[in-house]
Description:
- The protein is of the alpha/beta class.
- It has helices spanning 19-30, 47-50, 70-73, 85-99, 188-197, 223-230, 232-235, 239-254, 260-266, 286-290, 334-338, 349-352, 386-406, 416-431, 461-472; strands at residues 10-15, 35-38, 105-106, 111-117, 122-127, 132-140, 162-164, 180-184, 203-207, 215-216, 282-283, 295-298, 302-305, 309-312, 317-319, 322-325, 341-342, 371-373, 409-414, 478-482.
- Its cofactor is FAD.
Amino acid sequence: MASLDDSPALDVLIIGAGFGGCYLLHLLRKNGFKTQIIEAAGAIGGVWAWNRYPGARVDVELPYYGFSDPAIWNFFHWTERYSSDKELRAYFQHVATVWDLHKDIKLNTKVVCATYIEDSATWEVKTENDEIFGCRWLIAATGTSYKQYIPEWKGLSSFEGTICHPAHWPEEPFPLEGKRVAVIGSGSTGLQVLQATSKVCSHATHFVRSPNIAIPMRQRAISEDEWLAALHETFLVDPEINREAYDFWCQKTRQRIHNPVKRDILVPLDQPYYIQAKRPGIEQDYYESCDRENVTVTNSPIKEFTKTGLLTEDGIHHEFDIVIACTGYDAITGGLRTMNIQGRNGISLDEKWKDGVITHLGIFAHDFPNFCMVYGPQAPTSLTNGPVFLEIQCEFISKVLTRQRDQNIKTIEPKVEAEQAWRDRVLGLADQTLFPKGSSWYNGGNIPGKRKEFLLYVGGIPLYSEESEKALQDWSSFEIHHGR
Length: 484
Ligand SMILES: Cc1cc2nc3c(=O)[nH]c(=O)nc-3n(C[C@H](O)[C@H](O)[C@H](O)COP(=O)(O)OP(=O)(O)OC[C@H]3O[C@@H](n4cnc5c(N)ncnc54)[C@H](O)[C@@H]3O)c2cc1C
């Protein structure tokens, strides 16, 4: 076990090797910081190291889902407009080679605790294997989707078939051919899984609690869809325009489903929630897949699992070999709250946020000196194209650390009033839109017992960047302590 003295071996320890962690490592090393990443997965890539399920794919057109460094994009040949998980893993290997990342990344290592040591103004980070790392700055680049969620269905443990969350799809995938498969959930992942499995399994049953207002991947080529895009700004704030957009989508999409029962479940005439109040999926042939003869679609809630399948509230028993629980994540805050990050006086992030999430700029937290979060709550995060936003946020963090070092500042942490002002700002902005009106992972509505509040900054990247830069001008929203 390594020990820690007043001069930690590392300047910066980053938890997580997704887009955020990898870019930070590259940037901070270039700026002279001794930096290391600790990553729980067996490969870099973040969510793309974990998500190997059939049909996994980005919903952002390339080349925008990637790093902007010409040394990376000039020498990687994407083969599809919307890249698959497999290609993204190959991309990350290319990134690792070009930026020489692997020498400073420890894979297969989960952080279980991080504690701020007041006397030395350092962080002590503990892993599952009882290793301890010391660092001056701690950065959680742990993403929004580390803590998977499967509901505690009655009887689940009695089910004798295979049950799998898409983020834990085995590297050696189990065959779906000839199998009876349940696809529970119709979020972005459920939609992709249904599209892929329905073509190979003997029968799929799709359990839909809330239909996905999914948009075709080809949308840029179709003039009607351009119309939808033009309405984008206003339909986020005006319920009538939102309804108009829904009616248009509804009319177009219902034509694609011949089975009237499936049509009413998947594309109801009554708008189920405001467009964008849940993250819309991007689909290829989702509606045609659901319409297939070998696919059943039901919105009857799951009552309980049995040895051979599951029973729904309408009294129907469904039998399965494989259940794919596309039931999402305790998103945005779940991973951060369970990692046991302890700031001053042993207060954990989980305790700090028990009456509501509170941060400064979605990056800093009072009582957590020299600690930053990347792609975290109260920042634009999931409302953006991830890699693009992450580059901007990582560059901001690198600037903070560099300025701190240049000005001989030992620690920074936000003032209590700055945090409160940021929380009010984030919630106030969201309240001007229709975003918080639904129940989704954007506001914790998908997790029983989770406090329901909107978790993202809706002002967009340019305004967010402006506000972040302003906060950095004179450190007035921070408590700072000089020294080495
Ligand atoms: C299936 C799926 C599809 C997506 N598609 C899109 C898309 O099309 N467009 C888009 O913009 N965004 C998409 N996203 C969001 C995606 O999270 C971001 O695009 C981006 O990957 C975020 O990168 P990140 O580095 O912040 O976090 P992540 O990619 O989530 O990486 C975080 C890393 O931290 C590690 N970690 C977490 N906790 C610990 C711990 N305690 N110890 C050690 N390591 C830890 C995790 O293992 C993970 O590798 C998708 C997400 C998922 C799950």
